[in-house]
Amino acid sequence: MTDGKTHDTAESARPVFAAERRQRILELVRANGAVSLRDLARAVGSSEVTVRRDVRMLEGEGLLDRHHGGATLPGELTREPTYSQKTQLSGTEKAAIADLAASLVEDGDAIAIGAGTTTQAFARRLVRHTELAVVTNSLLVAQALADCPRVEVVMTGGTLRGSIHALVGSPAEQALSGLRVRRAFISGNGLTAERGLSTPNLQVASVDRAMARAAEDVVVLADHTKIGVDTMVQTVPTEEITHLVTDDDAPRDVLDDLASRGVRLHVARG
Amino acid sequence: MTDGKTHDTAESARPVFAAERRQRILELVRANGAVSLRDLARAVGSSEVTVRRDVRMLEGEGLLDRHHGGATLPGELTREPTYSQKTQLSGTEKAAIADLAASLVEDGDAIAIGAGTTTQAFARRLVRHTELAVVTNSLLVAQALADCPRVEVVMTGGTLRGSIHALVGSPAEQALSGLRVRRAFISGNGLTAERGLSTPNLQVASVDRAMARAAEDVVVLADHTKIGVDTMVQTVPTEEITHLVTDDDAPRDVLDDLASRGVRLHVARG
DNA sequence: CGCTAATTGATCGGTTTAGATCGAACGTGA
DNA sequence: TCACGTTCGATCTAAACCGATCAATTAGCG
Q1: Which of A155, B7, B227, B242 is most buried per CB count within 10 Å?
Q2: What CATH number does domain B90-268 carry, 3.30.70.890, 3.30.70.1110, 1.10.10.10, 3.40.50.1360?
Q3: A83/B contact by beta carbon, under 8 A
């Protein structure tokens, strides 16, 4: 504020105003995308120190991004930090849940496996089983069992939902409607005693419902971050859930409530 | 060092910042699925040590997976023991074929893609297309296009054949019988002028046939090791093949024979 | 005319980055 | 299983860059 020009008219003298220099810096960065500090200094005819100051100021206003060695347009190289957090967030807990859930599967079973990273971890534990028949709409689950010759994997058809790597839509639901399995292993984004299992997506919910209908037992795989959480669409009501596999960080009150409604609990030690 | 720049116009060598380099590494891995460290270093113009550091950092953020000799997409979607096969065996030829085949696809097309490593490479080139509708029975193809929001991927159902990571059986064939696409991109294990495309497996052949029937044009993707080779089951007769994309090591006489039977040739420069 | 304030330029020390080297670990093939 | 080549990790070196302090020039003002 104080470092501005003394006169707004700027007609009296002809010094190289700081604002003008900064404008040129901005233009250069915009034109080239990325300019080194040295080139910038040469282009505007000032020292690197001055340009460094200017760039720092411009960064403060959010007009460009400062990097080691130069400046770039803002947001050009934005990294997405929230990409794989899901898989590594609670990896050990997921593994413990998956191990425990695998004990609910017997050789010769016919089971269905839904989409999700937890079910993917679960599927990896099934490679030791023999004569297994698995129905799934998850590419990740299918991939995990692909190299296992003693497990027959059947995929539903459908439209690929890239964010969760699973198939949805009426083809998937129809494929499930014609099948019957002993147990369905389903994950979700939230589980409460009142509303049961839920997920934020309509299409995913439909497929999960169809999968639950095709099974005698419904086993829910949910780590503690999902217990007591409710999301938009209900997929399986509590009454239809026969088993819940979770970890020991889950809130006790919700677990007790679920147990009182007939859900058999399996708590893995994290 | 301080080279006398004849003109102080900001037209100098564009700097490559660390963040930008990492972004390019990420793009390269995303585009090719698996890239060796040496290729990565050559592509970004840095030493292998530097690239190794970058890859390690990116792995720390979960943006890619590090393997011995290179990097792959995270989630080990491409868990294969023979890492070398994909990157160096006939990687360049496959890539050239895939590039050329991708030029046969236009925005807004509806296409079908069969199973195979060549078609997988082909699918990776389609991420830039928009408004694409893709039908496939290959998990690898679906996986390659999963993160592309502008491509709608529909999978046939069916039984998973682990060795080729594709779906076979009557559900797959039935799903294809109800569809109609402009072009089908099919690979195989052998292609001769007399018998056309062939594969050693009966179930795979049935699905490939169904895929060819669902398409107006049939495009065969086959590298030179498959040209002139005949395997057990015929999938598509020569008369139904409209395009062949191969590399320039393919035997000329077979190519001429195919061309005389109405197959349009596209020979990629290895 | 002299003083004050402000902006620019220069120098120094610390930090970050890129490249090179060497022992160790891994994968491959016999 | 063993041997060999390749790759990885760690340490080090060199160089570039950044931040801060200080000197110098210039404009403004009493």
Answers
A1: A155
A2: 3.40.50.1360
A3: yes
